[in-house]
Amino acid sequence: MAKGRLPAVVGVSVVRPCVLDVTLADGTRRRVDVERVLYGTVFEPLHNPERFAEAMVDHVLGTVVWLNGADLSPEFLYASGTELARVEPARQPAASTREPIVTYVVVYERAPNNWSAYVPDLPGCVATGQTREETERLIREAIVLHLAPLRESGEPILEPGTWTGLVEVPAG
Asked: 17 and 76 in one domain?
């Protein structure tokens, strides 16, 4: 591992309950047995193999997360893992004059003191701001940051699958 900032996690697969294979952005692959840290309110449910199998990469945080909010830092994953075969990081494709545009549904919510936003098609892609305008700017940046590791690693960017509509019902 080079000195400085540890590369982000760009891939994860569940080998068996409590064991992950993680791939870092520099191509380093590690096998990590996490059973010894699965204690406490957040981690205890991950002893259930079905819950543990929900492991995924949060491309904003650059690490492994679960649907219940549990996460493991890249530093822990690197230090606790055993090195596997190294894979060559995907090369950046030549820049085209115009990048394809993808449109995602964003849900905005007003709270008493701020605004928040999330993208249903990009789990973990969220933003908050003092105003709706600020939140719109921040969620746009969050989407770009969320997709960047996918593009860099050559992973496909899934087409959006969420659509919105309005439904009228009686108010009384």
From this structure: yes
Contacts with 122 (C-beta within 8 Å, 6 or more apart), sequence order = 104, 143, 146, 147
CATH of the domain at 145: 3.30.160.250
Q: CB of 10 within 8 A of CB of 24?
A: yes
Asked if pLDDT for residue 18 goes beyond 80, the answer is yes
Q: What global pTM score does this model have?
A: 0.49
Average pLDDT, the chain: 81
User: Quick one: 51 and 116 in the same domain?
Assistant: no
Which residue segment(s) compose the domain that 116 sits in? 107-153
**Which residues, including other chains, have CB under 8 Å from residue 58's CB and lie 6 or more apart?**
64, 65, 71, 123, 124
Cα 125 to chain center, whole Å?
Answer: 7
Q: Which pLDDT band, with edges at 50, 70 and 90, does 86 fall under?
A: low
